[in-house]
Automatic annotation (TrEMBL):
<dbReference type="GO" id="GO:0016787">
    <property type="term" value="F:hydrolase activity"/>
</dbReference>
<dbReference type="InterPro" id="IPR051806">
    <property type="entry name" value="HAD-like_SPP"/>
</dbReference>
<dbReference type="Pfam" id="PF00702">
    <property type="entry name" value="Hydrolase"/>
</dbReference>
<dbReference type="InterPro" id="IPR023214">
    <property type="entry name" value="HAD_sf"/>
</dbReference>
<dbReference type="InterPro" id="IPR036412">
    <property type="entry name" value="HAD-like_sf"/>
</dbReference>
<dbReference type="InterPro" id="IPR023198">
    <property type="entry name" value="PGP-like_dom2"/>
</dbReference>
<keyword id="KW-0378">Hydrolase</keyword>
<protein>
    <submittedName>
        <fullName>HAD family hydrolase</fullName>
        <ecNumber>3.-.-.-</ecNumber>
    </submittedName>
</protein>
<dbReference type="InterPro" id="IPR006439">
    <property type="entry name" value="HAD-SF_hydro_IA"/>
</dbReference>
Length: 225
């Protein structure tokens, strides 16, 4: 029997690039523009899910009536605010090295993000991603984003691998829930602000500090050359 090929499907924000808190502040600015007062910690707990679902949940928590036009407006305000932060976003420690290792080892990998390409492109460029060679799936390309599994299913299809043999690497509970529903193995990173127990409860079978820590333990998750 042929041994299943290992592959990795990466989330982007908080997993490969240090951008979670820029997203949080951008959402706060968008909400304040709409006259909605919400604590920063509440915003952070929703980072990682789709923008539409994120806005729905935030508005639901405030008791404000949900208006589709307002959701679209909030998403636009968030995107505009986030663009102002993009230049300051950097790859997380070991992110470039991890991707280079997988490429050199001929281990398939792809990126699947709840962001739209409009906001994802600048941080992908900071990561040094080759857009012509790297499968990238964004919110624009699927019907539903996380915690639905669509992004990771599409990424596995682009790679030509079975989702059951893939490992989803993410920093949020929404990544791990989407991985379970795919179903794929979930690897959690602490670099997005969620705790180890939270990630494990959501389905992570291994949790590491950041991409550098994952690279140091890559043999534990089937990433041997």
């Amino acid at each position: 029997m042929q041994r299943p090929k290992t592959s990795f499907l990466f989330d982007l924000d908080g997993t490969l690039v240090d951008s979670v808190y820029q997203h949080v502040l951008s959402w706060r600015e968008a909400l304040e523009t709409e006259g909605i007062d919400l604590s920063v910690w509440r915003i952070h707990r929703k980072i990682g899910m789709s923008g539409g679902l994120f806005a729905n949940m935030l508005l639901r928590e405030t008791g404000i009536e949900i208006d589709p036009e307002r959701i679209v407006r909030l998403q636009r305000l968030h995107a505009d605010a986030y663009k102002q932060w993009s230049a300051d976003i950097r790859p997380l420690p070991g992110a470039r090295e991890l991707l280079a290792y997988l490429t050199d080892a001929e281990i398939p990998w792809a990126i699947a993000t709840s962001s739209r390409m409009e906001t994802a492109r600048p941080v992908l460029e900071s990561l040094g991603v080759d857009f012509d060679r790297t499968p990238i799936v964004t919110r624009d390309q699927v019907k539903y984003a996380k915690p639905d599994p669509d992004l990771f299913l599409a990424a596995a299809e682009r790679l030509g691998v079975a989702i059951q043999t893939a490992s989803v690497v993410g920093d949020s509970v929404w990544d791990m829930l989407a991985a379970r529903r795919a179903p794929a193995l979930g690897i959690g990173l602490l670099s997005g602000g969620y705790g180890q127990e939270e990630l494990e409860r959501a389905g992570a079978y291994r949790v590491y500090e950041d991409p550098a820590d994952l690279l140091r333990h890559i043999d534990e998750v089937g990433g041997r050359r």
